[in-house]
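Q: Two folds, back to back.
A: First:
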Amino acid sequence: MTTSNSLPTAAGAPPVISGKDAGKIARAAFVGTALEWYDYYLFGTAAALVFNRLFFTNMDATAALLASFATFGVGFAARPLGAMIFGYIGDRYGRRPALLTTIVMIGTATALIGLLPDFGSIGLAAPIMLAILRLVQGLAVGGEWGGAVTMAVEHAPVEKRGRYAALVQVGSPVATLLASGAFSLVLLFPSEAFDAWGWRIPFLLAFPMLGIALWIRLKVEESPIFKDLLAQGETAKVPAFEVFRHAGGRLLIAVLAALLGVGGFYMITTFAVSYGSNTLKVDRNVMVNATLVAAVAQIGVTFVMGRLAEKIGPGKVTMWGGIVSAVMSFPLFAMIDTKSPWMITLAITVGIMLIAVAYAVNGALLTELFPAKLRYSGVALGYNIAGATSGFMPLLATAMLGISGNQSWGAALILAIISLLTAVGGFFGERLRVQDKKLVTS
């Protein structure tokens, strides 16, 4: 690990971490993150299959789909604000209270979406309320991921941070399995039943899932590194301001490194599902089921890349993941254009596996770009600025279909660009990694 470019770390006695507890903490972070992403991914699938028809019914089909994706993008726009709010709490008062708050917010907002009347019942109030709840989701997710990986990494021995950070990332494919699986089941209902009440079931399941995740998170101890900062009186007063002022270059690298994991994922899932079902007229179940197969493959890739990051560095893994994803962007969308269920499933699976290379090590790389006193805010801001930027990619790709005559080259070009930007982030990120003060493992 390189330290020549490190920001100063706190002086004082080294904090004690328990290698025995590291796995337990990482698993708790994983469970909470899986719920957060389940809630978030549900909205993406519903934006492609439900909201355009039931909440924007006063528009033509293309305008309704664009409006649905715009509402989807609102959640991403709110994420940097959530990162600032919960980054302040996490760096000033503790990682634990911030994470407990985020999980309650997003679970409640998601379940309430399942109770919303549609446009036919209350008119314009329906999409307005939908946008507000999406905003709440975005604020909560803005603080969730950064806190979860920070907790997992700060409880782990330095030499094992890659695997524990990767465990948190497994929450994403597990959430995809849960969200896509739930939608696959309710899509088996007759169309009338699905539109009337079936689509609501996956959202309402957020209530019992929230109870389980909250119970697990309440057992999690505060980060030993944060406790040490608190004891030394070295917490940041306004952490987000200090990130922009003292670590702006690192923040930019974090944004670049995270672009592919967020934007690429939604290009291969949310946009591809919409493109396949609405433009290519492929059966919706084919598109949704392809994401299920891809999610299973992503789990394996994530674990392998987490271990590889411990050997060669997360920045190098990120760089090569970005390069290969860029090379494969056009071939992947060409495979989807065949309309063959097998080729579509293969394309989405390979696409997600490639994106997972960089995504798997996002936690390990981003947490080591910032010193401990700015870590929650720095990681959350970097990841969620990337999210705010790339969350509108499905909207942009959909708009480009009109320019390209419903051809997929515009979407492939977007994916290639963000892949190369992430490769740049990985290249420089590896050279900017910092070390915490010496840790003692019990």
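A: Second:
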Amino acid sequence: MRRTVFNEDHEAFRETIRAFIAAEVVPVYDKWFAAGVVPREFYGKLGELGVFGINVDEEYDGAGIDSHKYEAVIYEETARAGVSFGGSGVHTLLGLPYIKMLATDEQKKRWLPKFTTGEEMWALAMTEPGTGSDVAGMKTSAKLSEDGTHYVLNGAKTFITGGVHADRVIVCARTSAPREDDRRFGISLFAVDTKSAGYSVGRKLDKLGLRTSDTAELAFVDVKVPAEDLLGEENKGFGYLGTNLASERWGIAFGAYAQAAAAVRFAKEYVQDRTVFGKTVASFQNTKFELAACQAEVDAAQAVADRALEALDQGELTAAEAASAKLFCTEVAHRVIDRCLQLHGGYGFMNEYPIARLYADNRVNRIYGGTSEVMKSIIAKSMGL
């Protein structure tokens, strides 16, 4: 299909990323998969390549580009190769927007140069054991010291992507009790140095998919957080969190579309090589019909993902539109990847084949960033229902 979302600069970047993946990722990816984590030094290579600095202002050593289209290219190219850049997506998609939106000039000068090089990796710690999507129900607390120089952080977080390698984590914590008429009041955001005393990384969680993305439990026991590491204003954290949800959900939607497109590519290559009953699997009418149906769904998902990308870059992507894109693209990816795995037969169940890894990786798309059921609620509300 003809696309208008990318220009020559994006395509040149695509060539760079594709070559980088072929040289630096594909040869060692099986080792990363077995280890369940991307080596920390790999993020330095992404920094050298300029991946982390694309959306960072030039005064902080970035490229100063205000667009998500380069991220979109990375989604497509990693999916195409059947690989992952680990938890680095959280660094740029979740960490950077909060720094750009909330950090003071002094904070930006301290944080962004190291952010850009990958010397200091960031993560976001929102979810807690027992709260899930109920962010307002969090128990982690941050109490300001009597002299006002620091906060004392106590609590725990779970499902924190990038949590193992993170050097600084945006931690959501209660600085005040919720109000009777507003249980969302009282949450604040802190950029916590992971080397702080009392900060600890618990288990690296054993996930069904996304094996190379480090996801961890975090614990805070009397962690002293300097007052100058508060992000934004005290007690207004819940509102800040909501402003980034549209871009996060776009990212999941676009990533899911890219996975679906990759699944069709993997299946097409497999059925053209695989023979059964003296004929290639691709020669059977059922195979052709299945792949044709999958391609049609991928085409539709691409159009939805691209439209959401354009709206996001123009600052016009609404919560309902982001929810609709996420719901549609993740459901399409679920159906397409399952059907493409089926075309692989028994080999589709083997982790040595990228379709098997893709199948497992894709499942979380309908859960994180807001479940499909939450997306439906948002869409229904926008319809006046």
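Q: And?
A: The longest strand covers residues 150-161.
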